[in-house]
Amino acid sequence: MGAIIWFIGALVLAGLELAVGEFTLLMLGGAALATAGVSLIGVPVWAEFVTFAVSAAALLLLVRPAIRKRMLKPQVLDASPRALVGHRAEVLEEVGATGGQVRLDGSIWSARSMDPAHTFAEGEIVSVIDIQGTTAIVWKET
């Protein structure tokens, strides 16, 4: 009977964590789940409470800080030209094997076709396949 109570407690705590989002209730739910497992082997009630206290302390002091650190780490903004790969560009000046110009991310870039035998006319929309130095390598938008 004790295992069922601990299991229900774990579910309630995990459900409440969805509203709070601080990982505290989730760690307590994990401790209740561990206690439910220990309760299944038939230990006395005082041992269940000791198991809950030890596992809750371990989860709160060891696991929760690591999870919070990982979840709250700021996203890194990639401002390098490599971040433009995959973006769409508008052809401003015919793009071929030797060169041309496209409007990419609000600025004008030198561009060349990925296939030397293929050219793109002014006004076409192309995709940036690669950035080589200051030149965008482009191909037809599909």
Shape: rod-shaped
Question: How many separate domains make up the residues?
Answer: 2
Category from helices, strands and their pairing: alpha+beta
Helix and strand string, N-terminal first? Answer: HHHEEEEE
State the strand order across the main sheet: 1-2-3-5-4
Protein name: NfeD-like C-terminal domain-containing protein
Domain NfeD-like C-terminal: 83-140
Organism: Corynebacterium suranareeae
InterPro entries: Membrane_assoc_protease, NA-bd_OB-fold, NfeD-like_C
Describe the structure.
The structure is a single chain. With 142 residues, the protein is of the alpha+beta class. The chain folds into 2 domains: 1-72, no CATH class; 82-140, Nucleic acid-binding proteins (OB fold (Dihydrolipoamide Acetyltransferase, E2P), Beta Barrel). It is 44% helix and 22% strand. The protein contains 3 helices and 5 strands; from the N terminus they run αααβββββ. It has a 5-stranded mixed barrel. Helix 2 packs antiparallel against helix 3. It is rod-shaped and about 80 Å long. The N and C termini lie far apart (61 Å). The mean pLDDT is 90.
